[in-house]
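so my prof wants the structure for this chain in the tokens format not the other one, which i didnt know existed until like an hour ago. anyway here's the sequence
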Amino acid sequence: MLSAENLLELLQVLPDDKRKKLLLNSKLKKYSIDGYRTLKNVPIKVLSTYAAKSSLFCQIFLDLIIDEYNNLTTKDSQTFAVDEYPGILAYYFKYGMDIAPIKIRYEALTVPIKIEKESSQQEVEKVGNDMTMKKYLGYVLKQNYYYYNFYPVYVFDNKIEKITSPVVDFPQKGNINLFSQPHAQHKCADVFQENQVALIEFSQNDLLENRRGEQLNQTEKKLDVDELYNRNRIHFLRDIDLFPVVHLAAKLDFSGASNLVLEDNIQNSEDVLVEEDSTLYGPYKLDSNHQIKVSKSQNGTIQCWHPRFNKSLDECFLTFESDVGKYVFRSQLQIFHKDVLSDEELLQGFARVLKDKKDIDSPEKVVNNYLCSVFSDSIQVLEKNARRKF
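here's what i got, hopefully its the right format
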């Protein structure tokens, strides 16, 4: 039986056009993989894992490849051309033969090609291996009614760097199509909001050609959303300490009631900061109803942020080419705590402390009640409360 590793090796040397042609052969029509419309759409790593489980599939597929390459056999082991390697490799795999002799010849044939390409690939080699995973920060647009396209703007690797030439890195429009198969568990519309800023992790090797028939689309590359989701490649912005800055339908309520967020392009369960009166509050988790709940601490304060480095708030926001809202890194902000107690709440707290006089025989209870009161906060808040009422 053909192993998944051997099948992957064969798929890697088989040209894309021949692989897709053979996978559409009527002899393989009965085979399918959940989430993919046809076998030709399945990434080769996924295909090799699933297909290797069926010995009949492997037998049919090997026969198709052998036939496609004019039935090369062992007599051709020292004479085959470099582009005939998939055919003779399939033959050796079919009969369980040692592939070392043909692999040596294949590597010898490809050495001159590799040397010839080295000068033209210097820039590519600087980028690194195609398997290198990178986190790309950008925005998702829904275009032409139902196409979801991701526009990478920044690369994040412990620090954030702007992509200098998006149209070069992601031809021809500086974007990547996000697609999902008809029967996929996670569709684009389920995972992404329109105009959402997203953090997606992928390698160049994950990018598939984006074709309509035989024609390459202007957005030349695409990513499978269901595969990204299942492999945990779609990250929350908070994972890099970045937060959407949102605004509320009504004034911020500190009582623990729900506050409706106006922005509709934020991913559910994302942590957000609320902007109100030139101050940022939070972060708070956005629920599935696009609401947040805000509760003040027992001592009547709430966590707030203002800019570091003598900047204005607007100078702290991360910029995107598209109007997708405001976003800020926590590193740009300085934390402080704001007293949000109403006069009535302050008086009620003071009254509770006075009632502790009857518990004079229980000092521990007096102390505990005091520590939970509005008067147990920092000296600054205590002094502020005192000046406000007494």
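also thought this was worth mentioning. Confidence is low (pLDDT under 50) at residues 113-117, 119-129.
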